[in-house]
């Protein structure tokens, strides 16, 4: 069974979006270099960021996201982002009316059920959990193995928190990855059990 990784780009003060639910400059690092990160050639990063990010992206089998993110992205038009095989959407509502049942999206009620479904689909590949409210719930449930952050040099002051509404202490190990890219600091922590 693959590990469960909570991941997002984040401001230095811990936000994944501003008060208007916009990422602002959080993804600027994805256009700050000259090395294409994917086949589209649109996303270009520094060689250092490529060497860290590409191998991780290649390990992801399933992404777990909340219904809010799904709705904001219009369900990625039925195609999982970044070449990922499946998306598990945590929601209390049914799939959207007219949704293509063949699209590799799975609508699940509750984070425990979402992680179980994602691990079933991912096999030994990584289950990535989007940071924010759903990610915080998965962390609080004790189901996250690793926390990865791409810390961007911006202060939002308020907005959508990386760990959502987590209200209890959770210890992480010392960072096992600290890599400086262009306009980003890549960090990875194992969750202490």
Automatic annotation (TrEMBL):
Source superkingdom: Bacteria
One Pfam family matching this protein: RibD_C
Domain Bacterial bifunctional deaminase-reductase C-terminal: start-end pairs: 111-172
Gene3D superfamilies associated with the record: Dihydrofolate Reductase, subunit A
InterPro entries documented for this protein: DHFR-like_dom_sf (IPR024072), RibDG_C (IPR002734)
Molecular functions per Gene Ontology: 5-amino-6-(5-phosphoribosylamino)uracil reductase activity
Gene Ontology annotations of biological process type: riboflavin biosynthetic process
Membrane-crossing segments per the record: none
Name used for this protein in its record: Bacterial bifunctional deaminase-reductase C-terminal domain-containing protein
